[in-house]
Design brief:
seven-stranded mixed sheet, alpha+beta
């Protein structure tokens, strides 16, 4: 409906997304009309808001209409300004990004309102000469857009084919697209916008289908150039498969009770549900479970929760078989006669789909298995970190060897006698001839995450990673910032224009958000205290997300894509993050090899020893592979894992332990190996007799016979080196029953929160000690500067508390700002200054780094598991002491 008001037009819509897209489409039409007839420039500004539109005689009235009119008056030529109401109601809209223009006071509205400017590309005509412009056209034409009604649950995306290969140099696939590649030449044939983070693609001779991990949508693409069809997916989608004339979507449902896995069937043409989704029985507590799906032997197979794999009847949707893999499946691949799964610790499992039994279990000499594909009488497994492709011939005999294909291999597909590999880190798709194993690489650009082979060509799902993207690059006072979607709007509160941009790289999806959003706020708090300045430089800040909705937390592919984005953005001068060591493993080398010089990174919490130096539990290639330039560009303000083991030894000495037993829950897990070896080394240096580390099996009696032997041997202390799993809990219960309350039990930070161990382990946990670098009791844990920060920062928080890791994020921000302040403003100079930073009175005391990037002074809080009230699930942890781990006990 349209109402004309002088030189304004009021348009009323039922859908917020329709209003947003119409506004952008109108600006495109105005630009086209002006380009065709420059004598009639249609320089239009548009304002939008959502709310109730009351129909009256002659038109509409309403408060939202008034705000839309004010925004329209503020909009410049070719601009679209939107209020918060319509942005919240529309949610994420493919192809659209927006920048925060701040709050403004408008007539008729009591409080300042936030203004959002939509970001989109226009082919603008050249401005006509001012002298030839009639006086009438000095006045800007205006369009007022008003929305009535409520947002719809899902809408099809009107996205047309946006590029076809032409003459000239190699094209680059746009970020956030599905790219169609010629299999012989590698030429880019076409590309289509399919959402913010496409992580999966499947295809046949009629179409291709992609999965958007952040928008939670499925898109169908016709290779002939018709518009993609996009619809909301069931649950949070995690994987796609084709089979039985249906499109199968694996998904998760997450709530406080845990994670459930499921599968849904869709009509491949319309994306309509063919039957109700099947939610699988069982709940997993591990947010990292990402169900995979495959079609094999005439049935659908879905992994999860935990280590379960289910066979599901396509007709009834019922589970017809269940298999335990031993650890959670990472990927599935199937054909008519076989099903293959990759799992943790380099495990590859061969399953007979007819009998639903495991035929063979293989263990490759790598922990990094991932994507899997079947073809040419072989099974192909991607090893992302090592940059190789494993080829397995099932035999007999079984034959395995590797083919080097480049770092970040994240997607595999077989077809036409070749295996195709998507490499997010290298920004390429590789073709491996199955007969000769000759590797041909095709540069694609950005971050290809998945591939699929079809008669039309090779489809690649491409995420944004620093190259050209569908999303535009917004500016902040003239400074180029990072596109919306992965990153929030940039903030700057200093005087003048900012000189550079720093970013944080943290997982801010629902599972991690309670922790990481406070970290984001702590970083901004520090910047505001410094008036957004580092020495003579004005510093803007942008918070970026390395997680996807599908995974619930970070993914290695998203981390690599983010790092490439930061490295390519000229304005980015430093990174605070990441949180997770696995993410750091995907990012440091990319940032270190940036073209404009190594990009400085300061992690608040990554603890894997191999990020900075070698040692027990460290991969032989680490840390060298992270620094291809030979220049160290990474530092952390959090204790590495081996320092925690040494702190446990100091605590054991204080508790008068004379004979300690070191228990590893998993001898192949790097975290536990580093802890066990460092504790043993430090304890022996302190005069404690150490037995272990050992990774014993519970056998038939659940560790009771082992506990009796420990009692007979005079063991009075136990160190738990590893994860908080059922094996560790069973061992604690057996040891406490055999030795009694005098036994000193010390555990690492995987057992935090300490207060929860009474519920998880039972009364045997009461009195055990837990070390861990979290801040839960700042007044007893932090030095004076840290306590002052906690008081000031907590006053800005709704619950008046300090998040576990927010102080570490604040300390990392202080370190990066000092490195920038002492630099000449270039990346290379900031990195050069990073390890020279000295802070005398920091949040955690003095700050100084060794040549690897670790703190020279390391403090650990000690928590004690106390008897909890039966109706309190998570009582507060109290710090009983703080221990310094001397470097001589660690190195």
């Amino acid at each position: 409906m349209v109402e004309l008001r002088g030189d304004e037009a009021l348009c009323v819509f039922d859908s917020p997304r329709q209003a947003l897209r119409t506004a952008v489409a109108l600006q495109g039409r105005f630009a086209d009309a002006t380009r065709e007839d420059p004598s009639l420039p249609m320089r239009v500004g548009i304002g939008l808001e959502a709310g109730e539109a009351v129909a009256v005689e002659g038109g509409f009235r309403g408060a939202a209409l008034n705000l839309a009119a004010r925004l329209c008056a503020l909009a410049g030529p070719w601009e679209v300004l939107a209020g918060d109401g319509i942005m919240l109601m529309a949610g994420r809209v493919d192809e659209l990004a927006y920048s925060d223009r701040g709050r403004v006071s408008v007539k008729g509205v009591r409080d300042p309102v936030r203004v959002n400017q939509l970001q989109f590309e226009l082919d603008l005509p050249p401005a006509p000469a001012r002298a030839s412009q009639p006086p009438f056209f000095k006045r800007r034409r205006r369009l007022l857009v008003m929305l009535a009604g409520v947002a719809v649950a899902a809408a099809a995306v009107g996205a047309f084919l946006i590029a076809r290969e032409g003459d000239g140099g190699p094209p680059e696939a746009l970020g956030d697209s599905a790219a169609l590649i010629d299999p012989m030449s590698g030429r880019l044939l076409a590309q289509f916008p399919v959402g913010a983070t496409p992580i999966a693609v499947v295809s046949d001779d009629s179409a291709a289908w992609t999965l958007d991990a952040d928008g939670e949508t499925i898109s169908r693409i016709d290779p002939n150039g018709q518009r993609p069809l996009t619809k909301a997916a069931p649950g949070t989608p995690t994987g796609l498969a084709l089979g039985g004339n249906l499109l199968w979507v694996a998904f998760v449902e997450r709530d406080r009770g845990g994670t459930k896995a499921g599968v849904a069937s869709l009509d491949p043409s319309t994306l309509s549900a063919r039957s109700g989704p099947t939610v699988l029985p069982g709940v997993a507590q591990d947010y990292g479970d990402v169900p995979a799906v495959a079609y094999a032997g005439g049935a659908v197979w879905v992994s999860g929760p935990a280590d379960l794999l289910r066979r599901i009847s396509p007709r009834s949707g019922r589970v017809t078989a269940t298999i335990r893999l031993g650890s959670a499946a990472l990927a599935l691949a199937g054909d008519r006669d076989s099903l293959w799964a990759t799992a943790g610790r380099g495990t590859v499992v061969w399953i007979d789909p007819a009998t639903a039994r495991i035929t063979k279990r293989l263990h490759l000499s790598t922990p990094g298995v991932g994507a899997v594909a079947i073809g040419a009488g072989s099974v192909w497994v991607a090893d992302s970190l090592a940059g190789v492709l494993w080829r397995i011939r099932p035999g007999p005999p079984v034959d395995t060897h590797t083919v080097r294909v480049g770092l970040g291999a994240s997607g595999l597909a077989y077809g036409g006698g070749s295996i195709w590999v998507a490499s997010a880190v290298e920004g390429q798709v590789a073709r491996v001839d199955a007969s000769t194993e000759k590797v041909t690489t095709f540069p694609v650009g950005n971050a290809p995450l998945a591939v699929s082979v079809s008669p039309s060509g090779i489809w690649a799902a491409v995420a944004a990673a620093g190259g050209r993207s569908i999303a535009v690059t917004p500016k902040l006072l003239g400074l180029d910032t990072l596109p919306a979607g992965t990153c929030s709007s940039a903030v700057y509160g200093g005087s003048g224009r900012p000189d550079a941009l720093i970013v944080s790289d943290l997982p801010t999806q629902s599972v991690d958000a309670p922790v990481t959003l406070a970290m984001v706020q702590a970083i901004e708090f520090v910047l505001r205290r410094h008036h957004f300045r580092a020495g003579r430089y004005g510093i803007a800040y942008q918070a970026c997300d390395d997680a996807t909705v599908a995974a619930g937390s970070y993914t290695a592919e998203k981390c690599a894509a983010n790092a490439k984005t930061y490295a390519a953005a000229a304005a980015v001068i430093g990174v605070i993050g990441p949180v997770n060591s696995g993410c750091a493993s995907s990012q440091i080398a990319v940032a270190n090899g940036a073209r404009r010089g190594p990009l400085a990174m300061v992690s608040p919490t990554a603890s894997y020893v191999g990020l900075t130096r070698s040692g027990p539990g460290v991969d032989p290639q680490d840390p060298g592979r992270y620094y291809p330039t030979g220049i160290r560009s990474f530092a952390r303000v959090y204790p590495p894992d081996d320092a925690q083991g040494a702190a446990g030894a100091v605590l054991a000495k204080r508790r008068r332990v004379q004979r300690a037993y070191v228990f590893e829950s998993d001898a192949n897990e790097q975290y536990g190996v580093a802890l066990g070896d460092s504790f043993a080394k430090a304890a022996r240096a302190l005069g404690i007799h150490v037995d272990g580390p050992h990774a014993p099996s519970p056998k038939q009696d659940g560790y009771r016979s082992l506990a009796q032997r420990l009692r007979s041997g005079g063991i009075d202390g136990i160190y738990l080196a590893g994860l908080n799993d059922e094996r560790s809990a069973e061992f604690i219960r057996a040891a406490r029953a055999a030795i009694g309350r005098r036994l000193v039990v010390i555990a690492p930070d995987s057992f935090l929160p300490a207060s929860n161990q009474v519920h998880a382990i039972g009364k045997a946990a009461i009195g055990m000690y837990v070390t861990g670098g979290v801040v839960s009791d700042p007044l007893n844990q932090l030095p004076p500067t840290g306590r002052r920060f906690a008081r000031e920062f907590s006053a800005t928080q709704s619950r008046r508390n300090v998040n576990f890791f927010a102080p570490y994020a604040a300390q990392a921000a202080e370190v990066l700002l000092q490195a920038i302040a002492h630099s000449d403003g270039t990346r290379a100079s900031v990195t050069h200054q990073l390890l020279s930073v000295r802070i005398r009175d920091g949040i955690f005391g003095s700050v100084a780094f060794d040549r690897g990037g670790d703190l020279k002074s390391i403090l650990f809080p000690i928590f004690r598991v106390e008897r909890a009230a039966p109706d309190v699930l998570y009582p507060d942890d109290r710090v009983v002491s703080v221990i310094a781990a001397p470097l001589r006990l660690i190195r």
